[in-house]
Amino acid sequence: MRAFGSVGGLPRTIASARGAYVTDVDGIEYVDLVGSWGPALLGHAHPEVVEAVREAASRGLSFGAPTEGEAELAELVIDRMTVGATRAVEKVRLVSTGTEATMTAIRLARGATGRDLLIKFAGHYHGHSDGLLAESGSGVATLGLPGSAGVPEPIAGLTLVLPYNDLDAVRAAFAAHPGRIAAIIAEAAGANAGVLVPDSGFNAALVDLAHAAGALVILDEVLTGFRVGPAGWWGLDPSYLPDLVTWGKVLGGGLPLAGLGGCAELMDRLAPLGPVYQAGTLSGNPLAVAAGIATLRLADADVYARVDAAAARVSGAVDAALTAAGIPHVISRAGSLFSIAFRSEPVRDYTDARAQDAFRYAAFFHALLDAGVAPPPSVFEAWFLSAAHDDESLERIEAALPAAAAAAAA
Ligand code: PLP
């Protein structure tokens, strides 16, 4: 996804980043709309986050032993995932990447249910582990791949890929495989094939259907978690309880950190208390934990309000510029995440996302880049705003959009 495979040209090599801007090795500055693919909620190199990492580094880089910081971060996560009287998770396990978080959650679900099969949705991305690459979003979607070479058929065959926002397909899968499905894994809101907003009540219905069949639900908040709100996408409608939740990106504030959580009864099945193995030399790394704690402590209501306002302003400006240029398009928005699709009808699933004039994005993207604005280099990725996107940076984006829209029309 870092490659410019679908837009052409060469990716910029970045030398530094601060606030809303990245600077490449030629000294050219861009307003950044990628945010390291999500972590940079506060903007790049927030001074207090950098200072927290510096301070942690002065005390040692990695111990392979418990630290107070791990416990503090886990408690911050549990607090955030408690909305009113509803506590979504009781225990948290820290790992280093979102891929590990979802991989571990799936192993835990299989270990707890004694079942093998997994349901995932087409166009959702959960990292690069073997069982999750079928009809995946993100780079797999950008490159137009059906899956990945190197994944043995018996492993791929354990994943049932269903169309998103289609509860009948979920019912049919449970009916076709009685007693065999361990879990449904779903992005809390899809954001890896462009933004795919779940229908109202969809996530809650997944929980009901899964539980009726003795299966679990893994809500993947690696991308949405702590970004679209203090308690992620789940926190915007905490009317249902997923069994396991995964996080990454914002959780580590730009350093490699991710995690999963659930009720104590389930989480205690992980090693060392339980038989489901998980371990990692750098899990809960003290520098990453320090960045995560600083980020979550700084991400208050004002930060979320600013990110939401910036996203509304930029998505509105994109919409206006494409409309003025007469280009059929829709903007899909999930909280502060949004994406463009070059088609007239709404995008509900991966089939819709692929049925668009995606070629238009290359000209649009390069015109913005030439004007010093760096959106994601694929139409299948969400745009990421931050609390550091101030008037000046937003005005630069707005000024660049009309010419980019004209380029997309050509
Ligand atoms: N899950 C979701 C929803 C993601 O968006 C991603 C990465 O983009 C992952 C999991 C994998 O995370 P990582 O790239 O840290 O392995």
Automatic annotation (TrEMBL):
It catalyses: (S)-4-amino-5-oxopentanoate = 5-aminolevulinate. Its EC number is 5.4.3.8. It comes from the Bacteria. It is found in: Cytoplasm. The modification N6-(pyridoxal phosphate)lysine is found at K249. Its cofactor is pyridoxal 5'-phosphate. Pathway: Porphyrin-containing compound metabolism; protoporphyrin-IX biosynthesis; 5-aminolevulinate from L-glutamyl-tRNA(Glu): step 2/2. It is an enzyme of class 5 (isomerase). Its main location: cytoplasm. InterPro entries: 4pyrrol_synth_GluAld_NH2Trfase, Aminotrans_3, Aminotrans_3_PPA_site, PyrdxlP-dep_Trfase, PyrdxlP-dep_Trfase_major, PyrdxlP-dep_Trfase_small. Keywords: Cytoplasm, Isomerase, Porphyrin biosynthesis, Pyridoxal phosphate. HAMAP family: HemL_aminotrans_3. Homodimer. Belongs to the class-III pyridoxal-phosphate-dependent aminotransferase family. HemL subfamily. PANTHER family: GLUTAMATE-1-SEMIALDEHYDE 2,1-AMINOMUTASE, GLUTAMATE-1-SEMIALDEHYDE 2,1-AMINOMUTASE 1, CHLOROPLASTIC-RELATED. This is Glutamate-1-semialdehyde 2,1-aminomutase.
